[in-house]
Known about the structure:
By secondary structure, this protein is an all-alpha fold. The protein is 62% helix and 1% strand. It is built from 22 helices and 2 strands. It has helices at 24-33, 38-41, 44-80, 86-94, 97-126, 134-149, 152-181, 194-197, 211-225, 231-234, 242-251, 253-271, 301-308, 313-347, 366-373, 385-419, 436-451, 454-457, 467-470, 473-488, 507-510, 520-528; strands spanning 287-288, 291-292. A two-stranded antiparallel ribbon has the order 1-2. Strand 1 and strand 2 (291-292) form a beta hairpin. The longest helix has 37 residues, at 44-80. It is globular and about 65 Å long.
Amino acid sequence: MALPTINTDKKKNPARGPRRRLEQRHVQMIAITGTIGTALFLGSGQALSGGGPVGALLAYALVGSVAYASLSSAGEMTSLAPVPGSFAHFAHRWVDEAVGFAVGWIYFFTNAVTIPSEIVGAELLITYWKANDQPYIVLILGVICLVNLFGVRYFGEVEFWFGIVKSAMIIVLILMSIIIDLGGAPDHRRLGFQYWKDPGPFTASVTPGYQFLGFVSAVMQAAAAFQGIEISVIAASETVSPRRNIAGAMKKVFVRICVFYLAGIFVAGLIVPSNDPQLLQPPGNITHSSGTTQRIVNASPFVIGIQNSGFGTSVVSIINAGVLSSAISAGNSFLFSASRILYGLSLRGQAPAFLAKLNTRTGTSIPSILFTSAFGFLAFLSIENETFQWFYNVQAVGQLITWSVINFTYLRFHKGMAVQRRSRKNLIYWNRFQPWLAQWGLFWCIVFIVFGGYPIFMDFYEASQPFIICYLIPPIFFLALVGRKYSHKTQMVSPDDMDFETDIPTIEQTETKEVEPSGFWAKLAYRLV
């Protein structure tokens, strides 16, 4: 059987191309906070209103385990091959060219539509000040486009400082939430686990028997919140010493999931009741035992909790501004990841060739960045709160399909390494729990994709909830896969024929000697970041 088609032209060699200008501190911060945006700070309200405090926490924990499994799979493959195209390239190389084509375009699309999603989220946050948000849409889109056009070095620097702000913001929000819960807020009202009892651990206002469907809606929102967690492996082809730095980033992922996501959703459930009228609802008007309620959102659950606890408007405004900055940062990161995947598709002849043209000064593909940025103009459409929620569903399903392919590709990769008697322990990063992690991730991704739209069939949503929103992406993925497979006569790559060497840079070509900084504070920052 023939090996998969890999472009070996030196001008478009996946092992060459973009410049490696992201340093360790850039990669580590991008891995920790890069794509944390409105899906966590604002969209978590949807998980709370749909699943209740316990349901939302369980949903985040389950999806978090899948995200960890998927990123571990992608990280190990990247440790072998830090090349442009990342997991889409791996699927092309070790599974089937058609699979790489399909997942590459699905990932590009879902990340590209996330850019206007983050801008729409920023719009909702700006409405807190009752400002005219149209000029800010132009400003946000222009800034993130320019940052990416200036080159990966500028992108890394901007995201590093944004990451510091987001890390500090999350820690401050968690601490403030604990203080509020223990009665240290201006109103001196001790909450404890009051909201776990009333309205209840799962959304009590949902018609009896529908709590599980609320949990399903929380799972889909959690998948959107974890979207883009694999950005660090996408950036590997532009990272100094990619194997060592990606390995370091992978080791911090578990802490990120526990501290930022699980702790965040946990404390949010302590300070805001799941039936608060300002929380974002699951897509469509949710059916309650007392009728249908149209809910309006203009703040994150953290802002709602802080505001309800008697803090002044100045404190709430500062927090809201911090959450707003996270939306800008996330939009910036999604533009980066989508344009890099598009560039990788072009390198392999799966997208127009002009998209692979690199600028000689910045080392980036300006056509890919501009083409991806064009999706940001969707934010200028007539925006309602529900639009923000529809974006979430598309993002979540697209992310689950991506994770499915990553885990399936890893299982093929794992088998190929074993058949060819190559030791994974020789890789700079490998996970001792593989391939069980990949199997776990693949199983749950399939379950989520199949049952993610199940509440529609149980009248959990009103008739206005379109069926196509929940089940649009999977048919597109399979049509792209089948169409590519039959039009180009592609074949599944057997383990014996898997190529683990061609066009893959060696360790000597990519890795430099690690130099630890001197001085206490420099060493502390080096260890933490």
